């Protein structure tokens, strides 16, 4: 009997995280009262661990634990009934016990029992003279034991329930999932994570409506989830706006997700609250015990991110997507660290731009390079999109801008005039003082404004059309040139393009690459060039890799080209020697343009 319950009893005890915690007045108060009622100098709250009785609270006891063997408190915990021993020395069970050895003669203990019926230990009083306990004394001791349990449960619940929703929190989720894994190893379940809103939506909502409204929205959703899930699965409030469900997976993950989303949408439509939020649901199907609870939740979270990115609303965990998220997260984190304190990892390279009339290099584009200490070179095509969506975008531009201006100044000092083109991000257009800061940097590095060109992708411009226009006008006034990068890949309208104070249009390499493939492809680029010329822009073709493409571009009146045919992006130190080589070759009348 004792053995079969023992594992569950011990697990219940350990989950309470009470063992070996410091004494606390809330327990000592009860222990004192027990001693007073019996008129005895010794009393304790004693918990029955695997092989010891450990005292959470003790009065008149020196040790903080005694061996479990032959301890009357252990018998109380195991049987979960009160025990009175009028004279320990006269009792065959306890005559040779450690307790009797300390001079104790009388013992009375009442059990500390959880709701589930596990005996955790005892509240006991001890006397040095043999005596009996009255029914009244024992009734009082039983009441006090109930108070100890109430105190234990209170402490346990504290930190396990989210105050706003009243739902069990993430710790409880972890614990319950571990319990399930112990009881039903290998059983498939769905971990469903409901994310009520994007962080910025909550922040906007708090700003406009106040945090009470946000709390009300969370309570509303929590109430609904609790009602909906009361029977089959528990709901947990795992972070500010996220709820997790553990669902028996006889339902399909997709089916469950879609059903949940439909019901949530119906709820939102019917509620008086004007949600300015978008909900996303991520589901991770797991086998109990095979992934840790932390991992299970993280995987559901990865699915939420995917649901948001793909705008599908509901997404099922996928290992491949998860690996991609993890790498991206790591890259972003490490890039931030590189920018903050390990700038040796970062450097700029430059790729020449060639004017097709003179066949001369007329400038270069600055491209960021990052050598990760463990991953090696990471392509900007991989990390820049993540950086541009993060808070690091502004600082990244700032770093590249300063590095570029320093480079122009360095070349100027040795008599080289090389205008540089620097890529900036959509986020920069939102900085009200961006144009002004660019001017300050120009002054700081003593560089003339016409030596600097800023490249903005068409899609960045279209993200903030009005801001873009203001900033571009301000930059233009300051004499800085503006290029529209990756032209053709965004969705700008002609009417809008015409208003842009840009100087240069850079046709994206995806179009340039194809112009020798067919007349339609060639016609597309030809039209882009003549349209851009018509609007007064100078045209640069990106990604020129072959002589065939170059010839075709010459025939289309393209102004400038950039691409591997001439030079790959190169270390800044290599640029001056490269330029010299090209000029010498040019003066000798040989073809200066060679594959880089
Ligand atoms: P982008 O601004 O359009 O830069 C041109 C990209 O095309 C560069 O890739 C360049 O190495 C590559 N490229 C040049 N010629 C050829 C060619 O002939 N064939 C092929 N296949 N590729 C060619 P990279 O350096 O990997 O940069 C990728 C993108 O990352 C850039 O596209 C730009 O959008 C972004 N990026 C790079 N550096 C920065 C930076 O400092 N700031 C910001 N905001 N973005 C940057
Ligand atoms: Mg560019
Ligand atoms: Mg480009």
Give the amount of beta strand, in percent: 15-25%
- Major sheet: order of its strands? 12-13-15-16-17-18-19-20
User: pLDDT average, as an integer?
Assistant: 89
Specify Rg, calculated over alpha carbons. Answer: 37 Å
Structural class, by secondary structure, is alpha/beta
How helical, in percent, are the residues?
40-55%
Number of strands: 21
Major sheet: 8 strands, mixed, barrel
Summed up, the helix count is: 22
Overall, the morphology is elongated
Bound molecules: ligand C2E, magnesium ion
Describe what you observe in this structure.
The protein is an alpha/beta fold and 596 residues long. It has 22 helices and 21 strands. The strands form three sheets. It has an eight-stranded mixed barrel with strand order 12-13-15-16-17-18-19-20, surrounded by five helices. A six-stranded antiparallel sheet has the order 3-2-1-6-5-4. Strand 2 and strand 3 form a beta hairpin. It starts with a helix and ends in a 9-residue tail after the last helix. Bound molecules: ligand C2E and magnesium ion (2 copies). The site of one magnesium ion has 5 residues, from strand 17. Ligand C2E binds next to strand 13, helix 12 and strand 17.
Ordered list of secondary-structure elements with their pairings:
Elements: H1 2-15, H2 25-38, E1 42-48, E2 52-59, E3 65-67, H3 72-79, E4 83-85, H4 98-101, E5 106-113, E6 119-127, H5 135-157, H6 170-183, E7 188-195, H7 199-209, H8 211-229, E8 235-239, E9 242-248, H9 253-270, E10 280-287, H10 293-310, E11 314-316, H11 319-341, E12 346-355, E13 361-372, E14 376-378, H12 380-388, H13 393-413, E15 420-423, H14 426-429, H15 434-445, E16 452-457, H16 458-463, H17 465-477, E17 481-487, H18 494-499, E18 504-507, H19 509-512, H20 519-534, E19 538-541, H21 547-555, E20 560-561, E21 570-571, H22 572-587
Parallel strand pairs: 10-11, 13-15, 15-16, 16-17, 17-18, 18-19, 19-20
Antiparallel strand pairs: 1-2, 1-6, 2-3, 4-5, 5-6, 7-9, 7-10, 8-9, 12-13, 12-20, 12-21, 13-14
This protein binds ligand C2E and magnesium ion (MG) (2 copies).
